[in-house]
Amino acid sequence: xxxxxxxxxxxxxPGGGTALVTNTGAEVVALSNVCxxxxxxxxxxxxxxxxxxxxxxxxxxxxxxxTSGPPADEKKDLKKFALKKVGENLFIEIExxxxx
Length: 100
What we know:
It contains one helix and nine strands; from the N terminus they run βββββββαββ. The protein is mainly beta. The model has no long low-confidence stretch (mean pLDDT 88).
């Protein structure tokens, strides 16, 4: 309920990355907000129902799949994080790599 339909919130991840958690209306998704083409920041465009990268015009559907621009040409989608619901809370599930 903290994220209204059409809006998103940035969350800092361990290790310094960020995830953009967006309520697309159909679902709540957690995606990297970093374009896989050259690392620019993407944002949600509610009126077009897409994620957009302003650097080179990359477009991603609500699930993070690249649909046009350099990311689509390179077949590079936004990294998607699993969400887990516990009560009224959503948690971003991340992989933790432990080096020994």
